[in-house]
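Reviewer 2 asked us to include a model.

Predict the structure of this chain.
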Amino acid sequence: MARLADYFVLVAFGPHPRGSGEGQGQILQRFPEKDWEDNPFPQGIELFCQPSGWQLCPERNPPTFFVAVLTDINSERHYCACLTFWEPVEPTQEELCARDAAERDEEADEGGPGALPPPTPSPPGQLFAPKTLVLVSRLDHVEVFRNSLGLIYTIHVEGLNVGLENVVGNLLTCVIPLAGGSQRTISLGAGDRQVIQTPLTDSLPISRCSVALLFRQLGITNVLSLFCAALTEHKVLFLSRSYQRLSDACRGLLALLFPLRYSFTYVPILPARLLEVLSTPTPFIIGVNAAFQAEAQELLDVIVADLDGGTVTVPECVHIPPLPEPLQSQTHSILSMVLDPELELADLAFPPPTTSISSLKMQDKELRAVFLRLFAQLLQGYRWCLHMVRIHPEPVIRFHKAAFLGQRGLVEDDFLMKVLEGMAFAGFVSERGVPYRPTDLFDELVAHEVARMRADENHPQRVLRHVKELAEQLYKNENPYPAVAMHKVQRPGEASHLRRAPRPFPRLDEGMVQWIVDQATAKMQGAPPAVKAEKRTTVPSGPPMTAIVERSGGLHGNSARRLEVVRNCISYVFEGKMLEAKKLLPAVLRALKGRAARRCLAQELHLHVQQNRAVLDHQQFDFVVRMMNCCLQDCTSLDEHGIAAALLPLVTAFCRKLSPGVTQFAYSCVQEHVVWSTPQFWEAMFYGDVQTHIRALYLEPAEDRDSFSVGEAPVQEDERSALDVASEQRRLWPTLSREKQQELVQKEESTVFSQAIHYANRMSYLLLPLDSSKSRLLRERAGLGELESASNSLVTNSMAGSVAESYDTESGFEDAETCDVAGAVVRFINRFVDKVCTESGVTSDHLKGLHVMVPDIVQMHIETLEAVHRESKRLPPIQKPKLLRPRLLPGEECVLDGLRVYLLPDGREEGAGGPGGGPALLPAEGAVFLTTYRVIFTGMPTDPLVGEQVVVRSFPVAALTKEKRVSVQTPVDQLLQDGLQLRSCTFQLLKMAFDEEVGSDSAELFRKQLHKLRYPPDIRGTFALSLGSAHTPGRPPRANKDKGPSFRTLSRNLVKNAKKTIGRQYVTRKKYNPPSWEHRGQPPPEDQEDEISVSEELEPSTLTPSSALKPSDRMTMSSLVERACCRDYQRLGLGTLSSSLSRAKSEPFRISPVNRMYAICRSYPGLLIVPQSVQDNALQRVSRCYRQNRFPVVCWRSGRSKAVLLRSGGLHGKGVVGLFKAQNAPSPGQSQADSSSLEQEKYLQAVVSSMPRYADASGRNTLSGFSSAHMGSHGKWGSVRASGRSGGLSTDVGSRLAGVGPPQANGAPPEPGFLRPQRAALYIIGDKAQLKGVRPDPLQQWELVPIEVFEARQVKASFKKLLKACVPGCPATEPSPASFLRSLEDSEWLIQIHKLLQVSVLVVELLDSGSSVLVSLEDGWDITTQVVSLVQLLSDPFYRTLEGFRLLVEKEWLSFGHRFSHRGAHTLAGQSSGFTPVFLQFLDCVHQIHLQFPMEFEFSPFYLKFLGYHHVSRRFRTFLLDSDYERIELGLLYEEKGDRRAPQACRSVWEYVERLSKRTPVFHNYMYAPEDAEVLRPYSNVSNLKVWDFYTEETLAEGPPYDWELAQGPPEPPEEERPDGGAPQSRRRVVWPCYDSRPRAQPDAISRLLEEMQRLETELGRPPERWKDAWDRVKAAQRLEGRPDGRGTPSSLLVSSVPHHRRSLGVYLQEGPVGSTLSLSLDSDQSSGSTASSSRQAARRSTSTLYSQFQTAESENRSYEGTLYKKGAFMKPWKARWFVLDKTKHQLRYYDHRADTECKGVIDLAEVEAVAPGTPAMGAPKTVDEKAFFDVKTTRRVYNFCAQDVPSAQQWVDQIQSCLSDA
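Predicted model (structure tokens):
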């Protein structure tokens, strides 16, 4: 029984003490005045009566009612029902004087006590103050409170003749039962009657309609969000204008959380004064008036639910985990069925006439039922994870969270994890875990209805039925008696609040109320307590739990077969069949990834322990330990699946004898797992074991008793769970005697204590390392205590045997580390012991004893381990595989000999036996070597099933881009080892785990040496320069007396002169500073040259006219003339250099030696092409306008349109921009900047004039003149983005360059009129950012094309991502092609290639149309070089030959100063800038073009990969340094001719290619059949681009194939010394992806034939012919063959006149399988000689006919063919066959039918003696004339034939005869 109301309070408005406008509440009266003993008066009630603050009102408001909730310090809730009404303010003294008259009128108006005056308007300026009646109760009967307070207000307002004191007294003395479903009628003594129903069970919350209202206001999704937020302990804030709605919403949310109880701050109505509570760090559910919404918005981590607006706002920083699927979606759909039953019927053609919609109260219960079911599904089987730690005197229960998550299959689920860790769940366990207590609806549901809920899952109607049943029970709980007697409570009349109140609310007589209360209390004490006994029962456990979602088996589905393998392997181990076990081990280790196999292993091992087979020999011990390690490596720290728990007893059982008295247990070998250092794991294990022992404690006597009772039903006591036992004990507890109770308590306590000792031992076993001097354990496990300080100073024990200093130096131990390990372990165990013993009620004496024991246990164990460690050292080491030494290049030296490592899979699936099939080559066991040139791993796969393959992975040291330390598990022993991950820009990745025998300092030494080799302090330290050179790296070169001193002198003079020049200019004027150019690897004084300032009045010696060159200069000139650029200029006819260097005036351009001393521009070549009309000294001034002084120079001229391609650096601010902005003519007194701009304008004008077609300069022709319609059909520009361009370019040009017109296939030929009518003479392609605001002068003849380009840093970033995509570094979680493509797309590499190709095609189009183009981007050495080179490659077929491509790279990349050393970070100085693959990107573009035009290139794709590899490898000197100037300075450029003394080491990559090409056709493209003067226009859309296989392919058999000497023998071995020369060719071998080199294992047809020819020639004793000569001869012969008949044309069939037809054929050929590709192209060459139809028209035929022509089998060998009947051998019938007479092979073949490709037999014509007419034999075809028979007689037998008719027989005989006579 409980009081209905504890206190009645009257609160009124009072002025604020500090005189502010706002008032405050004042308690006028409270009853009773003394606090109840069991329930003190709650503080702060006046704040909650008016939550928005106490304020006066200008008009009377109607009375309001709401219930606020206060929570006291014992977390008891007090419900404060507040009824507020308004009364006129009583005026102050001054106001009384002022308004005296008004007062008198008012008094006159007032009648007697019963007379109610009519409502009158209040006087103007009248204010009203609030007054509140408050009922404080611990019971939640809202309606009763509303009625009771309403009654008191009615009595006051309506002036009823009832004493208010009586009513209040009765209210305070009313007592009602708490629960049990009773019904009670109460009356307050004013003629009223109310019926109170109490709920059936106290534990179920009462919600009335609050849940249904909450869903109506917010909707399903929002309420579910709030539900999850409240469960996962987030802050929830409700906003509404209505207080009652706020308290309802909060009540509704709490009702949904049942059976969990919300245990944080809960304030449904928060007063404005207390708003700062919202910034509390703890979770809460709070309601606030919507007026304070602004304050709520400032909170960063609060979820705000606006009830009036129906929204829930979740801040960005808050993540609410959703319910686990499928529960989320199931709950959602069932909620919508409950809330909106019409939804299911909305689409029906004939909806039922009416649907019964539940009442609001019923709907409320249905919604709650849905959530009750949800909890039952979530927590199903929770009782199976409870650990009974103590039963007496009070139950102590723990929940095994990890096991619950593991068995439910929700380990990863964020939601459940947070719920189980939350306080609400802890309360749930302590409240509901008790085994013997009253049960309620939830207990029934979770125990008995789980199976039904599972069965109903897919039947919505059945689910709905279940929900309605539950709802009925919930409804019945709240309303046990349906027929409620009517309430009868007086209410005030309508609008009573507007009438003038008779008087203020009277002051009540305290004495009288107190007397009524006292009377009632005295009466209560006399009456016996009405106690309804609680019915306590054993709580049902329900069925064991199942996973929420049955997951599919996936990759490691544990089939019975796998478990069988595990069992077999274990039995082999214990039977001593080690060889068998070894074979099975890899399969077992794979199977152990699955949970069932791990359980199976634990069970099997357990059986062997039970059979006393725990003492093993060394091999058995190793096997068992490996399997255990494999099991444990996938265990998380929580051990959800109980694997570590199952293995724990086993690791302390299995052991081996090391020597007499010394035994090593398995635990010393399985310590490296995170699970052992997790306190939660140990606690769960401890509680589990304690439960087992306590259960056994109470089962023992029961079993004795059981043996006698024969008549009873046979109950197996063992099957009773610990909870059942506990429940039984709790039931008996009250009946036991005091002594018996004490005895049981003592027994339990000592059980727990003994377990604690046992666990202290166990923990010391698994936490103390075998070698206590190794502190790896401490490093790896932060879990072991305050080791942060330790982990910094503890160094791993090094080979030098140094002892690291301990962090607690004052301990005074010498072996400080041992002490540290011991100390850490003692602390860890002590913390554990403290926690579990306190929780499980161990006495303090026992606990103290434990604390004393722990250090002794640890110390004892350390001593035991020392002996074990000492003995284990003496064991013979496991035989490790012998190290395989790598093959080295000539001159390559080993820096560090092999360090034993494991090479781990790098994320590329093929090597690890991925979907491509093939064995798991990785992980491999071997060694890593560091040489002066490469990092090399050689080894063997660890999986013994793979076989004896050697795995090699290597990359040049110079290609290293990233090196990081990693901690990885070794594949064999699963130990955590230090590792290193090396990533290279040649797309190799070495992820290595160092073997145990490799000390940490060896690993460190390896890193240091690697770093030293990767970043030498000076460029001379690189492999290419230190190899075979006279000087040692790092020292200045000695003077060498060798054959070519003149070149050395030359280079020295050159540099000296350059420096003099530079020095002089530096003195004359220091006006203009170009951006500094970082000069690598130079001593500091020379860095001053960065600020070169060039004077206008140059001294004569600097730039001499060409006739007066000094002899040394002449020598410079002659050597410069031999450079690649100069040879190319002469080929292009861009100027000649005669002996006197006089220039032919007719030539528009000349070769200027102005830069021969590298004085004007240090990154340009010595000779430059400039317009004839420009003087050398003017160039000096022009160069200032450009970055790095890289002024525009010509680099290529079109042979057809004579348009020229120029390149330069970007403009400085003073450049073209200034020039175009200056509209007025230059005045004489101009600054230098203006004059240089003027020079530049003249220079551009000179370029325009030197083009033949523009010499007359007839007006302005502009690109802008094009009509967009004309462009529409031929827009070949893709989308060069040209938005926001300058005024000079009309929108037309913009749209054209942006490719607005419909796109045209890039391969289509331009129409004759295309781009001709009007155009500028010169287009300047510049960076958009640079050309902003430029206004071209209308008289100029050039036009700007601003484009957006990417910068070098974007290339760098993109390349990093590309590397990650192609070689991820760690295996993907779910490998799929999509993830690779996604990361490829993220890298944006292909987008950059697309932009480059697009710009290049744009420039090609402009040049092809006769306009010149100047490419002027960035500094002129990255993107400019890429674009200019691509343009030349596309426009000029010469550059598509091997020689031409070399020339192109030498000219554009090397001579024009692409900064290879800087971009490749070759030296220490460049380390910070990182690797930027600008040249590789260019090669990728060339590769894309090669793919689209495979017949246009003389070189093969391998050539591009070769250059891609070696431009970063630093094996050759070609790609070192940043410009010709630097190469001369180091003496690299001209020495090659002088000293040939080291022929074995090629210094130049070109020389190497040349020498290799003579020996093997690897760089040659057999499909090379160029078109005359063909301009290529490749597609550049990303969809047309392919990922270059250079990035993805790998050959693990011998490492990268680009160092030819190291490959195991070239792919097509043409050499004389071929070891297996005469061996038959048909030997078959398996080709593995990722291991073998495919081209080597399956050479293409032509290589095969050339190889065969060489082999035959060798056999015949001839010197083998060079492959090139043989190939050229075949091509030439085949061309001639076509001529005599007049059938073939001199050009072969493949040279078609329609470019895109030919090209598509090429693409088709290219994409065929490797073997056929090349044989097809050869076939076509032959057929062009022998097919009559190979005329010009034939060349125009479509691709399909071209292709089908290759399909006819052996067309050239079928001289005559047809059907003949052939008589079989003796006694066989005649059969029709298809015969083919082959003159070439001199044979008659026959087939089953015409389409048959398989020959059934051959008659060799050499054996034929005669062909004669035959006679019809038996069984011959009847209808045939007898003259159609003929016989062919051979030396072996006679063949009988029959033709279809006589003429065809005659023809056959003639054909065979002629064939015989030819022979």
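The first strand starts at residue 2 and ends at 3. The chain has a mean pLDDT of 77. We have added this to the supplementary material.
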